[in-house]
């Protein structure tokens, strides 16, 4: 039985306010959840409620969202018992009463939803991943580490947002993260040897000014080799160019390195060229959220060569994912809790995707916190891969650390997803 929910305004990794919620049960159990926040957001994401009061945090305060939890939600849920995550989250959805969670705010609702999942696991004395989904065996994910940042996540001249490495040829998560970190550190010395900056972007990847976007891939290839690994064999490359950010008047206009314009088909050509030339196994948002026709052509051309992940286009929304499945768009769904706003709906999105043989790629946001829920979520869903930033910065590393603990705890009851995650694309 819930005694109370208490919310407060805390800070995310960019120093912007976000919502933390704490739920207390009558048996004494308490737990917290914190919402993350994106920068390159999809148009159809659930609404993040911000105060807009310019005299505080440049309008980014979340006091209204916090007060909604402390008053309205607290009034509605305290003293009550819910028999499942579904029941709790449906209560939040009903209270909010809007289609896009704009009244209570998805930031408030997700913090509450996470706190409820966590407090349930505390009360039952089971790990969070088991609270989310019960299984005999769990799959440990490949950490797709975003080692070069560009786009909206960094102040450099690289247009594309994320250049990731996927260390898949490992016996365990623990070894996989070691391989990734070794490449990360090698990349640092390589960049500095070339006279480039080794300052990092929002997700902890390096953010140098490069001669071209492609140089980001080239230098990562060099780092993989120099660290003693075989590109493609041991470690592959994943990209999230986040192209919705470049979509203007029916074209993609690169906004940093050059002012060059690409049509959808020219961009598909570029991705095909790169996929043929480099060991790229995953391409997220290769085209933008409003370019469904382009997405269809991209899927027909590249869907058998790489995992094509829809982030902005699907927004973790089961209705939109269903439309994508019906239209044959992509073969994978990016899963971000705060895009849809509750744990239950997130699990519904995963289930729908997996039932239709779509992959699920579990993801953080560029504005993160110490909340490690996605580490448990990726294990719970057997999704096989996670992106949660680079090899540094604790709001990213906290998820890796949680995965190290989970792998140790599961012992023989887990297997490392490894190469099987990218089957068909390696
Ligand atoms: P965001 O970036 O959190 O800024 O939206 C992550 C992504 O685009 O995948
Ligand atoms: Zn993305």
TrEMBL record:
Q: Which terms in the GO cellular component ontology are assigned?
A: cell surface; extracellular region; phosphopyruvate hydratase complex
Q: Where is this region: Disordered?
A: 24-53
Q: Which residues bind (2R)-2-phosphoglycerate?
A: 161, 336, 365-366, 387
Describe cofactor binding as the record notes it. Mg(2+) is required for catalysis and for stabilizing the dimer. Binds a second Mg(2+) ion via substrate during catalysis.
Listed A to Z, the keywords are: Cytoplasm, Glycolysis, Lyase, Magnesium, Metal-binding, Secreted
Stated EC number for the protein is 4.2.1.11
Look up keyword Lyase and say if it applies.
yes
Name the coenzymes or cofactors required: Mg(2+)
Catalytic machinery residues: 203, 336
Pathway in which this enzyme or protein is active = Carbohydrate degradation; glycolysis; pyruvate from D-glyceraldehyde 3-phosphate: step 4/5
Q: What class of enzyme is it?
A: lyase
**Localisation:** Cytoplasm; Secreted; Cell surface
Entry binding sites for Mg(2+):
240, 284, 311
Report the superkingdom from the record.
Answer: Bacteria
Q: Which residues form the Enolase N-terminal domain?
A: 2-132
Provide the catalytic activity annotation: (2R)-2-phosphoglycerate = phosphoenolpyruvate + H2O
Binding of substrate occurs at 153, 162, 284, 311, 363-366, 387
- SMART domains per record: Enolase_C, Enolase_N
UniProt cross-references to InterPro entries, sorted A to Z: Enolase (IPR000941), Enolase-like_C_sf (IPR036849), Enolase-like_N (IPR029017), Enolase_C (IPR020810), Enolase_N (IPR020811)
Pfam families in the cross-refs: Enolase_C, Enolase_N
UniProt main location, coarse:
cytoplasm
Give the signal peptide as a residue range, or say none if absent: none
Q: Which family does it belong to?
A: Belongs to the enolase family.
Describe the function of this protein: Catalyzes the reversible conversion of 2-phosphoglycerate (2-PG) into phosphoenolpyruvate (PEP). It is essential for the degradation of carbohydrates via glycolysis.
UniProt-recorded name of the protein = Enolase
Organism of origin is Mucilaginibacter rubeus
